[in-house]
């Protein structure tokens, strides 16, 4: 399976700025976990070690990781970033979501 997520220039730019303050070799994990108001919650985390089963994507010098199970729910998604004061931050646009919560941090899969 290929890495399932597209990253916008805005998301890559913000990630680069965040990683400047981290130790060399820090990677970004994207995924989902059970929870949130709609069933599955998006995960964005910094990590220094990858798992053997992780899918990897290198974009603009940043290593992104995703576990195979999360990849099924995120396939075809786009990660974007907006600096808006209200509702700003990283946002997933997920074609696999039947519905999402009002805050945009969780979803119910189709």
Features:
16% helix, 6-stranded mixed beta sheet, 110 residues, alpha+beta, Hypothetical Protein Aq_1857, Chain: A, 9 strands, 3-stranded mixed beta sheet
Describe the structure.
The structure is a single chain. The chain has one domain (5-105): Hypothetical Protein Aq_1857, Chain: A, CATH 2.60.300.12. It starts with a strand and ends with a strand. A 6-stranded mixed β-sheet has the order 4-5-2-3-9-8. It has a 3-stranded mixed β-sheet with strand order 1-6-7. The chain is built from 2 helices and 9 strands; from the N terminus they run E-H-E-E-E-E-H-E-E-E-E. The protein has helices at residues 9-19, 68-74, and strands at 5-7, 27-35, 39-47, 55-59, 62-66, 77-82, 89-93, 97-100, 106-109. It is α+β, with helices and mostly antiparallel strands. A hairpin with a 3-residue loop joins strand 2 (27-35) and strand 3.
- Helix and strand content put the structural class at alpha+beta
Mean pLDDT: 88
Beta-strand percent range = over 45%
| Count of individual domains | 1
List SSEs in N-to-C order: EHEEEEHEEEE
Helix content: 10-25%
- Order of strands across the biggest sheet? 4-5-2-3-9-8
Q: In the CATH classification, which architecture applies?
A: Sandwich
Fourth CATH level, the homologous superfamily: HesB-like domain
Number of strands: 9
Contiguous helical run count: 2
- CATH class identity: Mainly Beta
Largest sheet: 6 strands, mixed
Q: How far apart are the termini?
A: 20 Å
Assign an overall shape: globular
Name the assembly state. Answer: single chain
Low-confidence stretches: none
How much is the radius of gyration in Å? 13 Å
- CATH fold-level name: Hypothetical Protein Aq_1857, Chain: A
């Amino acid at each position: 399976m290929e890495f399932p997520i597209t990253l916008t220039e805005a998301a890559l730019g913000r990630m680069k700025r965040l990683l400047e303050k981290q130790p060399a070799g820090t990677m970004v994990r994207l995924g989902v976990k059970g929870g949130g108001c709609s069933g599955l919650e998006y995960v964005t985390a910094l990590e220094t070690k990858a798992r053997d089963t992780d899918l990897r994507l290198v974009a603009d010098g940043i290593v992104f990781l995703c576990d195979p199970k999360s990849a099924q729910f995120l396939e075809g998604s786009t990660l974007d970033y907006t600096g808006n004061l209200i509702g700003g931050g990283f946002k997933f646009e997920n074609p696999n979501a039947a519905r999402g919560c009002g805050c945009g941090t969780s979803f119910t899969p189709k």
